[in-house]
Amino acid sequence: MTTTAVAAPQFAFHNGEFVEAGTVRLPPSTQALHYGTGVFEGIRAYARSDGRGLAVFRLREHLERLERSAGTLRIQLPFTPDELIGIVVDLLRRNGSDGDTYIRPLAYKFALEPGTPFGVRLSGVSGQFTINTVRMGSYVPREGLRCKVSSVRRVPSASVPSTAKITGIYANNALAVEDARADGCDDALMLGIDGNLTEASTSNVFVVGRDGSVATPPVTADILPGITRATVIELLAREFGTAVEERPVTPAELADAQEVFTTGTGVEISPVTSIDHRDVGTGRAGAVTARLRDTYDEVVHGRRAAYASWLTPVPPL
Ligand SMILES: Cc1ncc(COP(=O)(O)O)c(C=O)c1O
């Protein structure tokens, strides 16, 4: 007798319930599809090195940023960050997640409330909230990224606040990525309208100068203030004794840097090996980037007790 393995259903958390992810349907009238009026987070859970299930990295900080982003678009999240921590842990356990997993909460404008006239707006439009998870390990090649300083400029905060992770704004990032790919590169480095560096398409950027100093654009430079960025600033101070300079970074500094690396939940810590087809430093991951990446890896997998408060445990079922 043969038995056929049946894949366990994957659950999503949708409008207050755990449902099979494949059953979630949205009508074409969904407002966020038309106007980009949604906010989201990208969060990672890592398999702990000690085999005791998963740990979600800086979950509270991500959920608090989600709440702030939602506020920018006048979306009232139906749960507090504390409640959402429990929901995320529950979802991972229901999905039997036992390896590195990406978690994607999404809050979005849904339908015009009675009496709200047709048109683009925020008030008078209801919201919905969904969380999905997907199994996902590291996806950036270990050898690093070839980047292009894109001709597509970053939308300034004066137009759309860059501190909020708003779905519609990612059309800007997608255009920059296409521009970089058309030129044979992996990712785009985006300048602001003042001509200084802002960030990459889904990550923040750090520059190591020839004198060993480390700089990154400040939060006022139209960037998303990344949670990995804050993590790296803290790790560099505590583990390396290096104080990161948060200050404007010019394209000339990028071209002259000893090392450049990007930081983000998705890309983790990735060396930039070339910019506009010219090698950065040796054209390989530099010493600061490599050491930082190893430290980050140890922290997220639970091998550094000093940073245990950054990890939310997800015990195995
Ligand atoms: C545009 C942009 N900048 C920076 C980041 C890095 O943010 P974090 O480190 O919080 O993932 C991301 C990823 O979320 C992003 O999409």
Characterization of this structure:
With 317 residues, the chain is an alpha+beta fold. The protein has 2 domains: 11-135, Aminotransferase class 4, branched-chain amino acid transferase, N-terminal domain (D-amino Acid Aminotransferase, Chain A, domain 1); 145-300, Alpha-Beta Barrel (D-amino Acid Aminotransferase, Chain A, domain 2), CATH 3.20.10. The chain has helices at 31-35, 59-72, 81-94, 170-182, 227-240, 251-256, 287-300, and strands at 11-14, 17-20, 38-40, 43-47, 54-57, 101-112, 125-135, 145-149, 187-191, 197-200, 204-208, 214-216, 245-246, 259-264, 268-275, 278-279, 311-314. Strands 8, 9, 10, 11, 12, 13, 14, 15 and 16 form a 9-stranded mixed β-sheet that branches. A hairpin with a 5-residue loop joins strand 9 and strand 10. It binds pyridoxal-5'-phosphate. Pyridoxal-5'-phosphate binds next to helix 5 and strand 14.
